[in-house]
Amino acid sequence: MFMRYEDANWQKAMRLKVDYNNMLAGYSKAAAAITPQEIAALKDKAAEAFQFIAQNRGKGTMEWSELPYNQDAVVADILQEAKAIREKCDTFVVLGIGGSALGPIAVQQALNHLNYNELPAEKRGGPRVYVLDNIDPERISGILDIIDPKKTVFNVITKSGSTSETMSQYLIFREILKGALGEDYAGHIVATTDAENGYLVKIAAQEGFKAFVIPAGVGGRFSEMCPVGLLAAAVAGIDIREMLAGAAAMDKIASNTDIMQNPACLGGLLQYIAMQKGMNITVMMPYADSLRYMADWYAQLWAESLGKQYALDGKTEVFTGQTPVKALGVTDQHSQVQLYTEGPFDKVVTFLAVEKFRCDVTIPHGHEDIPAVGFLGGHTMAELLEAEMNATEYALYKAKRLSCKVTLPEVNAFTIGELLYFFEMQVSFVGALLGIDTFNQPGVEEGKVATYALLGRPGFEEKKAELDARPAKDPAFILE
């Protein structure tokens, strides 16, 4: 059957639009606006960064860049398992943290009904989907009040199988399932983990769990388009082939060697220059509730990828990075935009816009005797939302602040695949410009190891002794 994402004209109509005018001198009046001379001065450096990515794509920690192309068998397996899950259960629960959770949350929010889990089953068309992305005991207990374990499948996602948060969740729900289903409990757990290494792959084999593989070179924040994110999406009825097709389409666009015609690389270059000018904060501000959790996903992608102490040589200290901030239009016009227009000149705001919403609501006429209210009648909510976004963009322009805008023609699986891959390529390009390892996260490890020591994991006695040797806190500064 011919699918719409195979139509070149449809693909062209679904292409993202990226507007960088408000970052460039000649349009923007900001003191930090980027000049053609500044871009030209980095021509060679940008070419080297582009070549670095091209040479390393598909290899090592850039294995994620081939996900749009090399998963035909994996996708077929996912779709078969998703069909079986949809037939036997009414709830699907993801157990994961970080990239194992943020990607699935963002995609579910973007591509399903905004109240998907609350819809009646016949309107929903698939199991309810929950993502347990934290270990708050009230959250864990609360999920048990709304699910029937006998009709629930749990997807445990951790490459190492030693992620304390995820494995503690697994142990809790394993015990509950065993009590409810006895020997049949294994059919209600799906493991997504490394093919050979780590503990979860061994547990899955021992217990008889269905297992999917996280490719070795795919880090958590780049994992939405492998089984980490594709299984939950497929269970909820999202077209995962279309999402991968969108990613492939963006990959072709981002492979353009002319940086000025390559939206991902040009955006990365402009962010890099802005960082050198003191723009230490990047604000992601979607103007659509469907895209609100894209800001959460982006925050991890940007922070873990660019926040690094050392250069690629592992010795030179650079202490680089740009702090991501989540915002939502129009909500945060009333909480954050005051800071963005009148606070420090240290931010770049990225707007996420949608041209055509999946539905619209017309504002009724009324109170024409009160012009401040009556003027709204006859407009639609989409019109109002667009006007609010354009007004905020203008307010930042007038205040001489840097911003850019990424516009989706509509929100569908193809454009979400484009969007995810766009930012993955952009952050990779920025990391290459900075001369850092974009794909590791050594700064996360200290907290993990300290947690193991505090809870008595064997082999971490030395770290426990180090923690115990900390200076005692001064009670004078613990106030009650």
TrEMBL record:
<dbReference type="InterPro" id="IPR035482">
    <property type="entry name" value="SIS_PGI_2"/>
</dbReference>
<keyword id="KW-0312">Gluconeogenesis</keyword>
<dbReference type="GO" id="GO:0051156">
    <property type="term" value="P:glucose 6-phosphate metabolic process"/>
</dbReference>
<dbReference type="InterPro" id="IPR018189">
    <property type="entry name" value="Phosphoglucose_isomerase_CS"/>
</dbReference>
<comment type="function">
    <text>Catalyzes the reversible isomerization of glucose-6-phosphate to fructose-6-phosphate.</text>
</comment>
<comment type="pathway">
    <text>Carbohydrate degradation; glycolysis; D-glyceraldehyde 3-phosphate and glycerone phosphate from D-glucose: step 2/4.</text>
</comment>
<feature type="active site">
    <location>
        <position position="334"/>
    </location>
</feature>
<dbReference type="InterPro" id="IPR001672">
    <property type="entry name" value="G6P_Isomerase"/>
</dbReference>
<feature type="active site" description="Proton donor">
    <location>
        <position position="304"/>
    </location>
</feature>
<comment type="similarity">
    <text>Belongs to the GPI family.</text>
</comment>
<dbReference type="InterPro" id="IPR046348">
    <property type="entry name" value="SIS_dom_sf"/>
</dbReference>
<dbReference type="Pfam" id="PF00342">
    <property type="entry name" value="PGI"/>
</dbReference>
<dbReference type="GO" id="GO:0006094">
    <property type="term" value="P:gluconeogenesis"/>
</dbReference>
<comment type="pathway">
    <text>Carbohydrate biosynthesis; gluconeogenesis.</text>
</comment>
<dbReference type="GO" id="GO:0004347">
    <property type="term" value="F:glucose-6-phosphate isomerase activity"/>
</dbReference>
<dbReference type="GO" id="GO:0005829">
    <property type="term" value="C:cytosol"/>
</dbReference>
<keyword id="KW-0963">Cytoplasm</keyword>
<dbReference type="GO" id="GO:0006096">
    <property type="term" value="P:glycolytic process"/>
</dbReference>
<dbReference type="GO" id="GO:0097367">
    <property type="term" value="F:carbohydrate derivative binding"/>
</dbReference>
<dbReference type="InterPro" id="IPR035476">
    <property type="entry name" value="SIS_PGI_1"/>
</dbReference>
<keyword id="KW-0413">Isomerase</keyword>
<protein>
    <recommendedName>
        <fullName>Glucose-6-phosphate isomerase</fullName>
        <ecNumber>5.3.1.9</ecNumber>
    </recommendedName>
</protein>
<keyword id="KW-0324">Glycolysis</keyword>
<dbReference type="GO" id="GO:0048029">
    <property type="term" value="F:monosaccharide binding"/>
</dbReference>
<feature type="active site">
    <location>
        <position position="448"/>
    </location>
</feature>
